[in-house]
Amino acid sequence: MIVTVTPNPSLDRTYEVPALDHGEVVRATGERVDPGGKGVNVSRAVAAAGRRTVAVLPLGGAPGALVADLLHAQGIEVAPVPVAGATRSNIALAESDGVLTKINAPGPELSAEEQEALLETVRRRSRGADWIACCGSLPRGLAPSWYADLVARAHAAGVRIALDTSGPALTAALREGPDVVKPNAEELAGAVGRPLATVGDALKAAEELRGLGARAVLASLGADGQLLVDGAGAWFGSARVRAVRSNVGAGDSSLAGFLIADGTGPDALASAVAHGAAAVQLPGSVMPTPDDLDPAAVVVTAEVPVDRPLTEPVP
């Protein structure tokens, strides 16, 4: 069972458009409304794989009620923490060439009482969990050390914890030794404070995060693939993709794939790559089911191509 924690969830509207012309009326060819937030997406991907998941998240107002209803409809157990502010609403514009434009609202500010209620709900609902996945940005009111506190509490309870966040929240949490962190290339570069031009640069940055406390690093490198670095070594995984339709939630799907494969070693990396590759070929933030996966298209190797330039280098 996988518990997800999404401190700043959202109601996400995704519009598919032929092209985004600034200042013009753009007619959408498709529309979806989904519960959003990185941890929510992990729960959706875990549920789509037929596994049990509990989504812990603060919810408020009409958007929060709709998020809960949408999650229940997908067979996800919801552990809501009522808050005074309304859950944020986000908009994503997915162009036919795969370019995605996102508009993310800031979300409500959580009071001290609401913050503690969120931590207590995680503690209560994570008994017997295989993993806790803490994902996304922190809402207003939560200090950068909030995730670090959660990692420490999880380890004290004997539960493994995965962390997908960035900036000061990631840096603060590293000292508590999260079992796996999942940055993308931009977040990885930000964490080490230098640009990434090659897979080798990403490998060195991941090793540096391990030196700062992370027990494993699962790095998403966009179209180039994914990199896993842990105490046993390093592996690189990639997959053939026919056509990219939307990359919304692809990284979250990858993390779900990694965790449901026990979150350790090259087999878990292969599952992560398969889930991520399947997700980008689906509309909006649709999460892949087992029927969408193509394990035969995945290649995982311990021979990391350190000299390979990144398709999208991080300056």
Task: Give a nutshell description of this structure.
The chain has 315 residues and is α/β, with parallel strands linked by helices.
What does this structure look like?
With 315 residues, this protein is α/β, with parallel strands linked by helices. It has a single domain (2-314), classed as UDP-N-acetylmuramoyl-L-alanine:D-glutamate ligase (3-Layer(aba) Sandwich). It contains nine helices and 16 strands. It has helices at 38-48, 61-73, 112-125, 146-156, 167-174, 185-192, 199-211, 250-260, 265-280, and strands at residues 2-5, 10-17, 30-36, 53-59, 77-82, 88-95, 100-103, 131-135, 160-164, 180-181, 196-198, 216-220, 226-230, 233-239, 298-301, 309-314. The N and C termini lie far apart (39 Å).
SSE diagram, text form:
Elements (H helix, E strand, L loop, with lengths): L1 E4 L4 E8 L12 E7 L1 H11 L4 E7 L1 H13 L3 E6 L5 E8 L4 E4 L8 H14 L5 E5 L10 H11 L3 E5 L2 H8 L5 E2 L3 H8 L3 E3 H13 L4 E5 L5 E5 L2 E7 L10 H11 L4 H16 L17 E4 L7 E6 L1
What share of the residues lie within helices?
25-40%
Strand content: 25-35%
Number of strands: 16
CATH architecture call = 3-Layer(aba) Sandwich
Query: Largest sheet at a glance?
Result: 6 strands, parallel
Which structural class do the helices and strands define?
Answer: alpha/beta
The unreliable regions are: none
| Total domain count | 1
User: What is the radius of gyration computed over CA atoms, rounded to a whole number of angstroms?
Assistant: 18 Å
* CATH class type: Alpha Beta
Distance between the termini: 39 Å
